[in-house]
Design brief:
This protein has 12 helices and 17 strands. The N and C termini lie far apart (about 50 Å). Helix 4 packs across helix 12 and helix 7 packs across helix 8. The radius of gyration is 21 Å and the shape is globular. Strand 6 and strand 7 form a beta hairpin.
Length: about 375
């Protein structure tokens, strides 16, 4: 179901990367926040009339509570200059987007990647949620700030990389080399066909020391055993092993989510590590320190003990306990706001500590 709305831009709220956030006055009198991606809709101004996609907004879904600008009918963007590349992302949708793949024939890197088969032992952290990205990066940089980090964004959440404020800020500050978008996701500094080719590009084009694989902002889950976008994490871990890398699983933890399936270790992580992963992988587990004891409940500690006992039965998973000293303080000083499911660091501390611990473990491999 597609719901369209008409409106007029009344102000520019802020911008990041290729994304602009506007205040838009709808024809029905409501004022809403709306996002416009410059490569798709052009540079828009106050008083421009716009047509918006309102489906997710009207249903109260999505990350951030935005309507999306489809087009400014009286101000069409200019045709892009002729350029090489024939890969189409978001294929056969009204706003399908053409890119040059990092390894296709017209690319400067085609010969480099044509016969590439290995990422040469590169540690790769695979996380369920996009919100883990800045915390993982913080854990890596706190341990070894000299390492080059690549972010591989899969298509389980948002498709445009431009939606990610975290990705844009981390790149701007030099904390990561950039984003490689794969699958139907697009808008990264490099474009790849799949996770395999994205990881090869991270290693051979960017000479990354560590890669992080996670979906874009947003997440899909139905509350069933198999109906969640994070199933792709298992496939990514398998891909890392296939390419001769070191697969590292970032656990999805929560001490604040009152849904039993996500309290402690999320059933998403347990399902993936038990049933989807077909290769040996390391699972970074934060040690329960005095600091953590003061921030979580006894109920959570008990749930965590139960989940760790279950995790220990997974034959392909090697649990790696990671000391978390200084990680909480590092996360407090994150240059990127930490939010997961609307909760900040102190509201759901174990979510971010687990991600930072995965980053620390990967950095310790050097």
């Amino acid at each position: 179901m597609m719901m369209y709305r008409r409106g007029k831009i009344i102000s520019l709220r802020r911008s990041w990367g290729q994304t602009c956030e506007y205040n838009v006055l709808l024809d029905d009198g409501r004022q809403v926040r709306a996002l416009g991606y410059v490569p798709l809709v052009g540079n828009l101004d106050v008083d421009d009339d716009v047509i918006l996609s309102g489906s997710a907004f009207e249903r109260g879904l999505g990350t951030g509570g935005y309507m999306m600008i489809v087009i400014a009918p009286n101000k069409l963007p200019a045709d892009p200059p002729s350029q090489p590349g024939h890969i189409v992302k978001a294929r056969y949708t009204p706003q399908q987007y053409m890119v040059q793949g990092v390894d296709e024939q017209e690319s400067d890197y085609h010969e480099l990647l044509a016969d590439a088969e290995s990422i040469n032992g590169m540690p790769v952290i695979v996380a369920d949620l996009h919100s883990a990205l800045p915390a993982i990066v913080a854990g890596i940089r706190e341990t070894n700030p000299e390492l080059t980090i690549a972010y591989v964004m899969t298509d389980g959440g948002a498709l445009p990389a431009w939606f990610s404020m975290a990705g844009a800020k981390l790149t701007e500050l030099g904390h990561i080399r950039g984003t490689i978008t794969c699958g139907q996701a697009f808008g990264g500094e490099l474009e790849a066909v799949n996770v395999h080719s994205a990881l090869l590009a991270a290693r051979h084009v960017w000479h990354a020391d560590i890669a992080i694989v996670a979906q874009g902002p947003g997440n899909l889950g139905t509350g069933t055993r198999w109906g969640f976008s994070g199933v792709a994490c298992g496939e990514a871990l398998n891909a890392v092993h296939t390419l001769g890398g070191q697969p590292i699983a970032c656990l999805r933890l929560s001490n604040a989510d009152m849904r039993g399936r996500h309290f402690g270790i999320s059933h998403h992580s347990l399902r993936v590590l038990r049933d989807v992963v077909k290769v040996g992988c390391d699972v970074a587990v934060p040690q329960i320190s005095d600091t953590l004891h003061g921030l979580v409940s006894e109920t959570w500690l008990t749930a965590m003990d139960d989940d760790l006992r279950e995790l220990a039965t997974f034959k392909l998973c090697t649990t790696r306990l990671v000391e978390i000293d200084r990680l909480y303080e590092t996360l407090q000083n994150s240059p990127v706001p930490l939010k997961t499911m609307g909760r900040g660091l102190d509201e759901d501390v174990t979510s971010f500590i687990a991600a930072a611990a995965a980053g620390r473990f990967a950095a310790q491999q050097f």
